[in-house]
Amino acid sequence: DQHLGQQSGKVMDLVGLLGEIAFSKLFSMERDDTVSPRSGTVDFMAGNGQSVEVKSSHYPNPHLLVPSYEINGQITTKELVDIYVLMRVEYNDRAVTFMGWAERSEVIRPDRLQHFRGAGRLSFVVPPEEMRQLDDMTATWLAAGLKAKGEIVELT
Fold first, then answer.
1. pLDDT digits (tens, 9 = 90+) for 86-110
2. Closest CA to 154 of 93, 101, 64, 102
3. What pLDDT sits at residue 1?
């Protein structure tokens, strides 16, 4: 487990799974449903070939947290991810919120490194207000497609 808080690994697995399911439904991307340890792999591959990593949190004001590693003398990440996505999971309310996204160059920077909320692990941290949002046209198009499939979608 690489999580920073006091929550159990089972809770974090559930939060991560729900975030990935919601992302896959929202963007009609296929999820790998096999169950096996696979550290070092990305979550999704977009149609344009970009890799997507979905990070999820159940906290009210989540930040994107990407664990850092020292590799060949450089502080970086294990995976070469193109796009990071942040999902907020409210599992008691059965709701998942798309918080935003960022490109690798916006996340993996020395000024983003910190021990978030006193954690022992150094992570790249992006506050939600610094993440990109879906543009109105894309959000409306995605919502219409999901509603047509009978999904419950709310644009806020």
1. 999 998 888 899 999 999 999 999 9
2. 93
3. 47
Contact yes or no for 127/118 (Cβ under 8 A): no
Q: What is the CA radius of gyration of the chain?
A: 16
- What phi and psi values does residue 90 have, to the nearest 5 degrees? -115, 80
pLDDT tens per residue across span 60-80: 899 999 999 999 999 999 888
Structure tokens at 26: 């929202």
Q: Residue 142: phi, psi to the nearest 5?
A: -65, -45
Partner residues linked to 89 by β-bridges: 96
Instruction: Give me 10's structure tokens.
Output: 């089972």
Q: Which two tokens stand for residue 122?
A: 């150094």
- Count of CB atoms within 10 A of residue 154's CB? 7
Token representation of residue 56: 């999820």
